[in-house]
Amino acid sequence: MKSLNAKAIRTLFALAGATCVAASGVGTAVAQQQQPQGWFKACTKQEDVDICNVQNVLIAESGQMITGVSLIEVKGKVNRKVFQITVPTGRMVPPGIGMQIDGGQTQKIDYAICLPDRCIAEAPLSDQLVASFKKGSELTLTSVNFQNQPNPIKMPLSGFTSAYDGDPLPQSDIEDRQKKLQDFVNKNNQEFTDKLREAQEKAKKGE
């Protein structure tokens, strides 16, 4: 079995931080309607390494990703710890993403890579960062959109400690989460379609 090179490791981190639905086109208006998924740990084996990702993803009612947070630990042939924040495209790159815990000092996380459907900011995953997440109650993540407008997103930290210190979710539970999310998206898409059809009928009748 071939060992992982630097490019392969970067690809794994990009994939690990992107276990969410398509991120393109999410604006502030959509971000008002979030579907929090809660913190959970997912682990997998890739070639020479074991990867565990403690993550939380905020999803809009449309099914689009608003913001994703990943604390990734790689063990084996390569040992690394990486903290990632994933946001939609259409971001101003120089400002990076501002991270604030419970109204404390804002820390800038620089973008590492932008893909067609998302941008990923990245920093080393330190014990200090993990400890601050465990003590905190709310995370505020602020990216700047292409109109140069800050887009702050709040993410609860409740449940983080149990997810980080606990066992990873079995594959069956992860699949169940995905199914529930898909059902949620399908339901809201159907409601949107019904409302649109109703509005079109009213317009035809001149109401």
Biggest beta sheet summary = 7 strands, antiparallel
Cα distance spanning the termini: 69 Å
Reading the helices and strands in chain order gives HHEEEEEEEEEHEEHH
Oligomer classification: single chain
* CATH class wording: Mainly Beta
CATH superfamily: Invasion associated locus B (IalB) protein
Which CATH-level-2 architecture? Sandwich
| Rg (C-alpha, Å) | 19 Å
The 3D shape can be described as globular
Low-confidence region ranges: 1-12, 14-36
Architecture overview:
- With 207 residues, this protein is of the alpha+beta class.
- The chain has one domain: Invasion associated locus B (IalB) protein (Immunoglobulin-like).
- The chain has five helices and eleven strands.
- The chain has helices spanning 6-16, 28-31, 127-135, 160-165, 171-205; strands spanning 34-36, 40-46, 49-60, 65-76, 80-87, 97-101, 107-109, 111-115, 118-124, 138-144, 150-156.
- Strands 1, 2, 3, 4, 5, 8 and 9 form a seven-stranded antiparallel beta sheet that branches.
- Strand 3 and strand 4 (65-76) form a beta hairpin.
- Residues 1-12 and 14-36 have low confidence and may be disordered.
